[in-house]
Amino acid sequence: MPATRRVFLQSSAAAVAASAIAAPARTDANSTIRAAVLGLHGRGRTHVEHLERVPGVEVAVLCDPDEVVLRKAAEDFEKKYGRKVATETDLRKVNDRKDVDVVSVATPNHWHTLATIWACQAGKDVYVEKPGSHNLFEGRKMIEAAKRYDRIVQHGVQLRSNPALQEAVQKMRDGVIGDVYLARGLVYRRRPSIGNKPNATPPKTLNWDLWQGPAQERPYSERYVHYNWHWHWDYGNGDVANQGVHETDMCLWGLGVGLPDEVQAMGGKFLWDDDKETPELLSSCFKYRDAKKMIEFEVRPWDTNDEQGVGVGNLFYGTEGYLAVNGYNGYKTFLGAKREPGPSGSEGDPLGRHFKNFIDAVRSRDASSLNGPVETAHTSSALAHLGNISYRLGRRLEFNPKTETFVGDPEADAMLTRQYREPYVVPEVV
Predict the structure, then answer these.
(1) Where would you tag: which of 138, 182, 395, 400 has the fewest CB atoms within 10 A of its CB?
(2) Domains, the chain, ordered by start
């Protein structure tokens, strides 16, 4: 374990939470499960909608450090659902509430792991958006916290709740395209310039310190808030860990593999002279020596072709054909040298199924029934992190999946974690 991993101190809030006795879960099929949603500017509103659709679930609390965003979300909630909802600007106060059973995390990436661990320590079950972690160290801490505090943690990789893609994976297991040796993940999204924004004074309605959380303090700027944080290393991880985690996870699921042995990535900014720090274009390769398999992952930022109708999705190649996954919509197979159409299946957006699967597991207390268990929050996110590290260092890397460290490379190991800012410290779970 790198020395940097051993120096983390638990924040006082986390230490208090860790010593608390987890609240009993509401497993009675007739009881109401009360949920809190963290982060309301974008994805969190979808969380509210889908949680409200699950029978026996009630969204009880909305939380966001931006008072303007929070007030608007609460007003919209009352109009749509005909009742008022409690609001909090500080997620730590959400964890203190006895009327919250589950927490749904839709914050920026750099908050995902700490929000999840603190909620687990407070006795809450958690649905956390992708990527589950902001760096590889955090993913392992999430797994440890879920086990240590006996919590149900569902990762937001809803492709795993799509019946058509469950069928596709089983077809590959059954050999429909022969021995599968290669998976491609594609994220071809049109991402325009974000321009150049100066540093400024944060709005009085935004708790900028809380928004930054675990990241080192920076001056406020509109270049970060409220969406373009995706393209800055302190808060996001680029498109490979934005849209891309759905596809990295699909690659791992389809191939039946975990963390790789070798990583190499290259790319850069070729289009815009703007404030983005992360690459616009990124091509990453991940090799599994013993399994004789490989993953290729490509992020393209602008006008481009698709591949077999896939612009965002996956392609799997085997000895007898290939299989295409088109976004959330389903799959098609093409068999033999003539690429004859084979089995196929389609299904709509599975997000509702994914939330219901989470709530069913909360009631049953059976983590093994989760379609997107906490382990996927680690592995699918880690693939993106490893590619980003190779890109940032500009070289091929050897990785030991057993120790989850690079082979003889302390410079790369240092990038498996970050320097945390008290009191927003991801704790060592003991």
Answers:
(1) 400
(2) 3-159+351-374+409-416 (3.40.50.720)
